[in-house]
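seq as requested:
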Amino acid sequence: MKNKINHIFFISFIIFIGCNNSSKIEGHWHFKSEIPNSGYWTLDLINQNDSIAYSNKYTFTPYSIIHSVKEKELITGDCGGLFNYKVDFNGKKIYLKNAQNYGDYIGEKHILNSSHILEDYLKDLLIKITFPRIANPKINFITFEQESLIENIIIGKPKYSKDVFFKDEYRIQVRNKFIDINNFDEFIESVKEKYLDKELKHLKFRFISDENTPVNLIKFILKKLKNHNFEKNYLTYLKRETKKTEEIFEYINFNSLDLKKDKKVHEIKILNTVN
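struct tokens:
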């Protein structure tokens, strides 16, 4: 995937703790600004000596950050500047001071579990999502969280809407904005411009849909995609059981789903052959 990074900033860690406490910056952190009711972004440091850290790891748009162990710096694609950190003595908080006065942050360490990870995935979506679950746990789904050639199509009712007309309407979110269904071809053209021709052959479209979304809306979008020869289209399901805490989703190709009679996403039946 061609990754167009417009802004690069360095996050410099200054650790004010004693010997053998460097591991306290490892883990899963939530950072919030000092503005009341502001959202949060996450940072994951698996090991102090790793050269890679992760921003918003448990979201549908994660990205890696270069971690300079020697310089104690992180290089990320987010807008920002230079930050200095102070870790409290018990290692549960990181205080972030922006050197350019763009705003300060406080990070708190969290213990990961499935419900916490689900909350992280949902936090930045513009749409309210209750994921469907499959009744047949014996089906072999695929997972592709580690893949980069993915475009997300999010469908459901908006979390917030100033327009009363759209409050109870099913909307489509791509990237960080709503699009009108009549302009979906424009989105497809933007996808073609974003990727190389050789990448388009492997591109997957991940449908993140509320369980009550009308199937007819799904079918309309699928028809648009197939008109442009995009066949790798998958519906996201929440696992009923998971062996690994971080693997909470599974995906099934729409070619393996019966969309003829169902009215809502949670009513979709699986065909005998699963792709």
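Residues 9-110 form one domain.
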